[in-house]
Amino acid sequence: MRSPSSSSKAWAIGFVLLAVYVVETRNWRVLLWSMPLASLFYPVSPVLMGAIVNLLSSPVVVGFTNAAALIIGLSQLSKVIGVPFPRSDRYLADLWHVVEQIGATHWPTLAFAVGAYLLIWGLRRISGAIPGVLIAVVVATAISAAIGFERKVDVPLNDIEDQAFVDTARAAPS
């Protein structure tokens, strides 16, 4: 089997960096600017980025990729148990705050996450050619729509105790 080229490693590292930035800052507009720029640099990437990545040792690249995977994976913990994830400059403190909220787990959300994971795992055991993640997303979405899982509720602003939020909501254009 052929090992990945330096250019493909550079693109993978760049994509991981972009994904971490977008997930952590929730600045989706970055994608609108990065995709056209990426299309401009792609033809010259073997010359530019491949040479830069070749200067990094393999353990550094693997360590960086694993660290990004851990940050992305652990930031999903709050979504799996259905509790808010605070945003501050201290990631580990924010993560600890999520762990402290485990007692407030939203059980239906956890059931969806576990069910999707089990479906992906089961389909992978049957055959690696089956797109388990895609099937799990479609099934979870269909079940969610069928049972009305989202259940949005309109709340009058007078019922909200946080005055700063009420002021912000009233100032926002409708």
Task: Please explain how this structure is put together.
- With 174 residues, this protein is an all-alpha fold.
- It folds into 2 domains: 6-75, no CATH class; 106-174, no CATH class.
- 70% of the residues lie in helices and 0% in strands.
Topology:
Elements: H1 6-25, H2 29-41, H3 45-54, H4 58-75, H5 77-81, H6 91-100, H7 107-126, H8 132-147, H9 163-171
Descriptors for this entry?
174 residues, mainly alpha, 2 domains, 70% helix
How many discrete domains? 2
| Count of helical stretches | 9
Cα end-to-end separation? 57 Å
Instruction: Determine Rg (CA atoms, Å).
Output: 21 Å
- Kindly state the number of beta strands: 0
Instruction: Name the beta content range.
Output: under 5%
- The helicity comes to 55-70%
Anisotropy-based shape: extended
Reading the helices and strands in chain order gives HHHHHHHHH
Chain-averaged pLDDT:
79
Q: Which residues form runs of ≥5 with pLDDT under 50?
A: none
Q: By helix and strand content, what is the structural category?
A: mainly alpha
Major sheet details: none
